[in-house]
Amino acid sequence: MRLKTASKYRTMRLTGHRFTDNPIKVHKMNLQKQLQVLCSFTLLAAIALPAFAEEKVAATTKIKASDLNLDVPKEWKQQQPSNNLRLAQFLVPAKKEGAKPAELVISGPFGGTASQNIQRWFGQFQSEGRTAKMTQGKTEQGKYVLVDMTGTYNRSVGPPFQRKTEAVPNFRVVNVMLTVTAGRGGNYFLKLTGPKETVEYAIKQFRASFSADAEKEEPFEL
C-alpha cells in the first residue's frame, strides 16, 4: 500500500519537538550553528585583544638610566638611590602580603670583563650551600651575561667604602651585565636581590624589563 505524504519530506512530532529526516537539511542547520559560534568567538577575540594590549602597556613604566632603557612594572616603587654609584633603585613587592620585598639596583657604565665581575659576585656569597647558574643572551640594546645565585648572601651594610656586610641566609641574587651599544655605550649592571620566594615571583618581570628571553639564553662559562 502506498502512503501519501503532505510534503516532499516527512516530519515527525515527538514529545513536543520537531525532527526532520532530511540529512541535507540537518547538515545545513548544523553548519549554520557552527558558523554562528565561530563568528561569536571571532568578535569576542577582536574586542578582547586590544584591551589586553592596553593593559600590558599600562602595567609598566619606561625608565631611562643614562643610555639604558627599561620597562619596569608600575608596582615596583622607584626610590631615591642610596649612593652615587646607583643610577636607579626600586623596591620589588613580595607575592604574599607581609613577606619581605626584594630590591632592584641599576648602575654603570663601569669597566671590567664579565669574568672579573662574576668572580666579584661569587665572593658576595658564602661558598657553603651556594648555587649558581650562568647564562648569556642578546637584546636590541646589546649582549648580556646573567648570573643567578642562591645561598647565604653577604649583604652590604652602610656606605660602600666601609665594606661592612651581614650574612643573610636563603637569599637569591640575579646579576646582569648588559653591554649597551647605543650612545656612549658601556657595561650597565642590573641587580635583583631579596628572599628566594620574592625573587622567584619577580624574575620573569625582571627579565622582561630589559627585553631578555630566558628560552633563547645559552650557557655561559668562565
What is the H-and-E element order?
A: EEHEEEEEHEEEEHE
Overall 3D shape = globular
Question: What Rg do the Cα atoms give?
Answer: 30 Å
Largest sheet: 8 strands, antiparallel
Which structural class do you get from the secondary structure elements? alpha+beta
The CATH first-level class of the largest domain comes to Alpha Beta
Count every beta strand, where a strand is a DSSP E run of 2 or more residues.
12
Runs in which pLDDT lies below 50 for 5 or more consecutive residues are 1-20, 43-58
Topology:
Layout: E1 11-14, E2 17-20, H1 23-58, E3 60-65, E4 68-73, E5 77-79, E6 86-92, E7 102-110, H2 114-122, E8 131-139, E9 142-157, E10 164-180, E11 186-195, H3 196-209, E12 218-219
Task: Provide structural commentary.
- With 222 residues, the chain is an alpha+beta fold.
- It folds into 2 domains: 45 residues; 160 residues, Protein Transport Mog1p, Chain A, CATH 3.40.1000.
- Helix content is 27%, strand content 42%.
- The protein is globular and about 75 Å long.
Short note summarizing the structure:
This protein has 222 residues and is α+β, with helices and mostly antiparallel strands. It has 3 helices and 12 strands, in the order ββαβββββαββββαβ. The radius of gyration is 30 Å and the shape is globular.
